Structure prediction request, 351 residues.
Amino acid sequence: MDMNIQQAYENIEKIIIQGFLTVGISFNKNYFLIKNITDKEYNNMDFYRSENDKYYNILYHLSFCTVFINSINFLEKRIENISKLVKFYTSMPISFIVKIRDIIEKLNNEYLASLNYLEGFCYTDRSRYLWSVVDINSRSQYLGIAGLNNVGMNSVQENWIIINKKLDDEDSYQKSLDLSFLIASASNPKGVKVLSRNYDSHKKELDELRSDIAKYGYDRKRIEEQQVKAEWTAPIKSREDLVRELYRQMSGKKDKHDLFIDQWMKQQRDMAEEAKKQAETRQREFRVKLQDVDMTRLEESMPISSAELKKRLIKNKISEKSNQSMSSFENYDQKDRFIKKISSTIITPGK
Prediction:
C-alpha cells in the first residue's frame, strides 16, 4: 500500500480502458511500445509454449507484450502477427531481449500493486462516469485504437464490471424503496418515518465508509484490524519472535495476551452498547404507542390516607364475618326446614 493514490488510480483507469499498462523504449532508431501481460494472456500462452526451448518461450512472451513497433499496430490480426514478432525478436541481440524482459517485469509488478486500490477507484465519480460511457466490449471504438479487444478481458475489468453492476442495483433499489415509502406513508406515516430514518442512517454510514475508501484507495480500518489480529494471533516459532515479544513487554507495548484481552473487552463493550441501543429502541417504540392512547378516557386515581385505608380494611373484615354467619344461618335454616318437612310425612304405626 505504498503506491501514490493518484498514480494507482491512473493505472487502474488505463487497465480498464486499454486493458494493460504500457511503456515506450527506443532501440536502433526504432520505437517499441511494450505492455504488461494480463492474466488471460498468460493462460493463452500455454498454446504457444515449447517444453524444451526456454529462449523460444521468452520470445513468445515478448511478442504477446508488444503493442506497436514504430507505426505498426501488432494488436490487429494478432494471431498472425505473433509469429512475425517471434521471428523479429530472434534477430535482436540478447542484451535487448533482457532489457525488454526486465521492463515487462516492472510493468507486471506495477500492475499487481495497482490492484490493491481497485475498490477505492470503483467508488469515485470518475469510475462511475467511465461506467456510463465506456462499453468494455468496444474499447477500440472508445480510444480509436484498433485491436484492443483482441487482448481479451482481464480480472480488473471483470471486478470493475461486477462492482458497478452492484452499485446500479443499489440505485434501483433506493428508487423502488423511495416509491414504496411514498405509497405506504398514506396509510402508516409513523411506521414509514421510522423505516426511512433507519435506512437513511444505514445509507449515511455506508456512504461515509465508501468515501473514506475512495480517498485512500482501500479500507484502512479493515486493513489495520487485520494487521493487528495477525500480529497477536501469530505463534512464536523462533528465538527472534521470543526476543521481539520480550522487547515489546519491556518497552511498555502490549503483548499478545494484552491484545487478546483488549479484543475481548472491545467485544464486551460492543455487546453492551448493542443492548443499550435495543433498550432505547424499545423505549422509543413504547413512547410512540403511548402517544396513541387517549388519556381523557382513563379514570382519575385518588390518594388515600392511612386512616381511611384502616377503616376500609376493618369494614372488609366485618363484612366478611357477617357473610360467614349469614351463610351458617342460611345453612341451619335450610336444615331445620328439611327436618320438619320429613317429620310431617312419617307414617305412624296403626295408620
Q: What stands out?
A: Residues 306-343 form the longest helix (38 residues). DSSP finds 14 helices and four strands in the chain. The radius of gyration is 43 Å. The first strand starts at residue 22 and ends at 27.
